[in-house]
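A favour, since you know our structure tokens better than I do. Could you add the entry underneath, on a fresh line?
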Amino acid sequence: MKKPSILCIRCDHIGDLLVSTPVFSRLRRLYPEAEINVITSPAGRLALVGNPDLDRVCVYNKKSFRSWLGLLPLLLKKHDMVIGLNQGSKTIRFLVSLARGAKKGFLQTGNLAPWSGDPDAVKHISVCMLRELEAEFSLPHDENPDIRMRFHVPEGLKQELRAAYPPVAGLKRVGLFVGNIAKPKMRWPAEKFAELAALLLKENAGVEVYAVAGPADVPLLDAFKHIKDTRLHTFVGNVSLQHTTAFIATCDAFVTSSSSPQHLTAAAGVPMVSITNPCSDARWTPRGPLNFSAISEVPYDVRGVSLKQVYEALNKSMQGYLTPWKD
């Protein structure tokens, strides 16, 4: 008997692919014997390395002739379902048009089925995508959709990072991701992160702090140079997303205003504070019982979020472990 064949297409950024992983997981649960393949961007591929719900991840690069040659057999193969995960993307619409599929459809259309509930209440992107998947392809309704992010980190790598950054007896580890340097409005200022680090160390003897940055964000770490506390450390994630996520998994809590680290932290199951704005919080911020948001009053600008907001949200994520905020 021929196995079902499903082709998913999403040529976007890392965060976009991470919030799409609940779709792949849902398809795998519905069709455990299916061949599920994904066409994605070079950046998107990084988010899907080792994903157990997928059989194959192919990269689309319109400037690469080799990329086209690699995609052609997959596009010409007859699929039972071809799913474009973002109707608003011209690239995705183009690739869906080329693919052969008995049933083709798109997500991120805004067209929810009647049983999805009040559209105003269904805002989070992962929930919307799962509701649209059910509607577009006539799939069984899941009343309580699982929107947990999936990101594979090999157990050996986890052990390697735990050995390289071992826990210190009596100390809780708080990670502070200070990027993204290229988006100043969407990045909580490095000076505020340093102020948070200094406060955490001063008021909480049972805390150590790691200032975390990507390779491009290293200049932002200069903001921490004035802090002379041996419980302050730095970590630069310059190897891979899996390497950085393995480090995040060593933390007891994580604070970030960048979307990709938010999703990686959620995938690692680490309590988190997302410094965000009302638009992003409703649609993109990961959900979880120990995930809290410090939300700005300005759309798409987090610079005005106060130190008090972040500290108190962090204390909630750490279940009251910190000394209460003092005005």
About this structure: The two ends are 68 Å apart (CA to CA). The CA atoms of residues 61 and 265 lie 28 Å apart.
